Amino acid sequence: MIRFVNRYSSLTHGCETMVIKVAINGYGTIGKRVADAVDAQDDMEIVGVTKTRPAFGCDLAVRKGYPIYCTYDDAEKIAAFASAGYECHGGLTDLLNIADIVIDCSPGKVGAGNLEKYQSAGVKWIFQGGEKHAMTGMSYTSSANHEENLNVEGTRVVSCNTTGLSRTLVPLYNHCGSLSVECTMIRRAADPGDSSKGPINAIKPVLKVPSHHGPDVMTVKPEISINSMAVAVPTTIMHVHVIVAQLPEGHGLTTESIIDMWSNEPRIILMSGGETGITTTAEVMEYARDIGRKWGDLHEIFVWRDGVKLEANTLYYFQAIHQESDVIPENVDAIRALMGTESNWRVSVEKTDNAIAQYNNIL
């Protein structure tokens, strides 16, 4: 394989494949996972990751062989990395100069300033769900709108919750032609590594009604009518969705056929809690660890088979979302969409997932 330096072009010439050069701006909870998922692909390479300062995470980047850059172009901040014993290859501008596309994994609400930098550098860009759809003008999930994102300048991979809702609702919509959904989000209070957030001994309702989670689905699939409410609970493991969907008359579905439908969709796991003993989010994550997933991640949406029930036109079900990881493969598919290298979302998803599985030695 020959690696070319040729921005915005990822073409195949015989057996020679152009490799997309990917920058990761923000090497934290999401950034380190996205970096490894990208590194697993044979049509992409990591050209650098950024840290704001020489701190936690730099050692991991060094072990992975990812070049470290400073989030800022400030010479004093860049020099601080060398003083701490890390080789820093420059600032963000230097990294953007050698990249085809940048995945922004920096903390939410800083996107607007970064967007200007990406546009000035002439690179394509992908933000995460912490930023608003209005800022990017485009949003992405593989199953909902891969084709609409082909060759665009930039997009936003929607949040973990929106991604999870899309995975199960889009196939239903595609079958039924219309869908009306009410969802209650039972949200974890913080990521496992975040000790600064709560609640600790309380259940905290999200008093903005509807919460943003459900309506955000309409940024990728506006035909689905959905509202949501949310509560935060003192756990750091997963989110749980309690979903009630109204199907149109003449939908022709049964509980069993819906389960079969989801079984044939990528990135959905269905299991019976009664048969497996997996009845809580703790046991779902233990399952992920048992099958050897790196960091104990679960990229798939977990649906309890025995919690799915269709009564006439009303569908009830539960699903669990691993907030740190379900969006990770979506970023890889979004890269192919923006670079125009794969127009079929199912082909991209299969390639992404197989590569990650081989990378993590879990096949």
Beta-strand content estimate? 15-25%
Query: From the 3D coordinates, which CATH architecture of the largest domain would you assign?
Result: 3-Layer(aba) Sandwich
Mean pLDDT: 93
Q: What is the radius of gyration computed over CA atoms, rounded to a whole number of angstroms?
A: 21 Å
Walkthrough of the structure:
This protein is an alpha/beta fold. It has two domains: 12-158 and 327-359, Rossmann fold (3-Layer(aba) Sandwich), CATH 3.40.50.720; 160-321, Dihydrodipicolinate Reductase, domain 2 (2-Layer Sandwich). Helices cover 33% and strands 22% of the residues. It is built from 13 helices and 16 strands. The chain has helices spanning 29-39, 58-64, 75-83, 92-96, 111-121, 133-136, 142-145, 160-176, 255-263, 273-276, 281-290, 328-339, 345-359, and strands spanning 12-13, 16-17, 20-25, 44-51, 68-70, 101-104, 124-127, 154-156, 180-188, 204-205, 225-233, 239-246, 268-271, 301-304, 309-311, 314-321. Strands 9, 10, 11, 12, 13, 14, 15 and 16 form an eight-stranded mixed beta sheet that branches. A six-stranded parallel beta sheet has the order 5-4-3-6-7-8, with helices on both faces. Strand 15 and strand 16 (314-321) form a beta hairpin. Helix 12 packs across helix 13 (345-359). The longest helix is centred in the middle third of the chain and has 17 residues, at 160-176. It is globular. Mean pLDDT is 93; it is low at 1-15.
